[in-house]
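Write out this protein's structure.
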Amino acid sequence: KFTSYVISKGSNFSSSVSKQEVELTPEMISKGTWKEKSFKEYNFNSLGVMPPCGHLHPLLKVRAEYRQIFLEMGFTEMPTNNFIESSFWNFDSLFQPQQHPARDAHDTFFISDPANAHEFPMEYLEKVRQVHSKGGYGSQGYGYDWSLDEAKKNLLRTHTTAVTARMLYKAAQQKPFKPVKYFSIDRVFRNENLDDTHLAEFHQIEGVVADYGLTLGDLIGTINAFFMKLGIKNIKFKPAYNPYTEPSMEVFSYHEGLKKLVEIGNSGIFRPEMLLPMGLPEGVTAIAWGLSLERPTMIKYKVSNIRDLIGPKVDLQMVYDNPVCRLDK
């Protein structure tokens, strides 16, 4: 059995191989040469080559989400461009005694040049000195000799609450007092041991509301509403101690990777010894909270070691593989 074929020239037969065009150019259209060209068929199933581009780090994407949530809740962003603060604004204005362990060199990075700050609101500074050494506003104070030299020392801010203190003092100078809602998200620095959940440099989310008649319930409700918008629902509170807030609470959230509750922030109601020397009216209460940016991001991206999220050990492939941050609101 034989099979035979008859081969003949078709309409597209050519004795030479011509290159097919892959795109229609403006020049082809203007000159009319497209009529004589052979075009390659489009393959609509091909994804093509992704153009090289950068990707935002997960921290920056979560930071943008946090900022948007604060703005949606009616907060105003505070200026946080001063990484270097004086001990006065970082500690003394917050009614934190000069003998407090947090002010030791093993917990704080002090600056050697310039070592001291020199410009302070002197009337306010004198009130802070008084409430520390002798008390006032219903407080016994700490009963020690308050030192201006200690308050002058410059340092890398240990918390953005130093910015909050400046903003509350500024609000107190405006008469009559108007309620305020402030927030900030920026870096802070702590001279502490490094481990899976701690770094010497990290981001702090700070929120503060000052108004008449605020209570602990307002603080808990605000924090819960904030994290609900982030899709974090399993929030726990634990009583704590802070020199400048009373009552105070630590904020925890469950980490699926570590299989345990992880502290993600601190909160409380600012003490009268902090607010009244600023000039805020009696009856004004300020609720505040400071939250880590890194730890909620670890929970969101299921990262168990903070050094895999930020620092020299970060795997860039992790950044590339997470181009979009979508919070389950």
